[in-house]
Design a protein that fits this description.
five-stranded antiparallel sheet; 9 helices; about 45% helix; alpha+beta; globular; binds flavin mononucleotide; NADH Oxidase; about 210 residues
Length: about 210
């Protein structure tokens, strides 16, 4: 499938086959493929909580306005956007900085300078750190959904859930925002995918 086909084929599927699991190795493959997503300074401020256990999916479904796909899909991913993923002591920042030094993009004595840059861009107020975490995790999430399509799986992003309820139920630390859940699985046989909804034309998307 070429990428144009993947773009057209991906849909937010409502009816998953509860009898068909997603192999953990395949899930690992699509998550790693999605890891090729771009991010600010390559800081990759995202994590995922994988929910497979039916008891946990039932708890999640209750917090997601009882959306049936939460328990029907074999896997639901809780996407986590790290609002502190720009701080110099974040492990991802450490790895990014070391990588920059190794590749000659930065000098070893520039760590404090780099810390100042990321603080200035992404940590000056709450809105900046929210935007930093969520824009990057959104790109990662989109890559993950396309990777799912490319690997023969269906997906469904959801932001219809009680954010603080999910945080509490799944012990999500305060540094993370939860931009969305993503259900992953196979289409329930016999279910028809609804026709695609309208999309803006080129002219509608462009503003002067
Ligand atoms: C961030 C995000 C959150 C969404 N949340 C929900 C949701 O909670 N429940 C739902 O049924 N659909 C949800 N959707 C699915 C959209 O309704 C769907 O993507 C849109 O109608 C376009 O359809 P398509 O993805 O099949 O092309 C969400 C989509 C996105 C991107």
């Amino acid at each position: 499938m070429d990428f144009s086909e993947i773009l057209k084929k991906r849909r937010a599927v409502n009816f998953f086959d509860p009898a068909r699991d997603v192999d953990q190795n395949l899930l690992k493959k699509i998550i790693e493929e999605a890891g090729n997503a771009p991010s600010s300074y390559n800081l990759q401020p995202w994590k995922i909580k994988i929910v497979r256990d039916m008891d946990r999916k039932e708890a999640l479904r209750k917090l997601a306005f009882n959306q049936p796909k939460v328990t029907e899909a074999p896997v639901v991913l809780i996407m986590l956007a790290d609002r502190e993923g720009w701080k110099i002591d974040a492990p991802t920042v450490e790895s990014t900085f070391n990588d920059f030094v190794k590749s000659g993009k930065m000098q070893a004595d520039q760590k404090e300078w780099f810390s100042g840059v990321t603080q200035g861009l992404y940590g000056s107020d709450e809105m900046s750190s929210q935007a930093f975490a969520n824009k990057n995790t959104g790109l990662f999430a989109m890559s993950l959904m396309y990777a799912a399509t490319a690997n023969g799986l269906e997906s469904h992003p959801m932001d219809g859930f009680d954010h603080e309820g999910v945080r509490k139920e799944f012990n999500i630390p305060d540094r993370y925002w939860i931009p969305m859940l993503i259900a992953i699985g196979h289409l329930n046989p016999g279910t028809e995918i609804q026709p695609k909804g309208w999309r803006q034309s080129f002219e509608e998307m462009i503003i002067e």
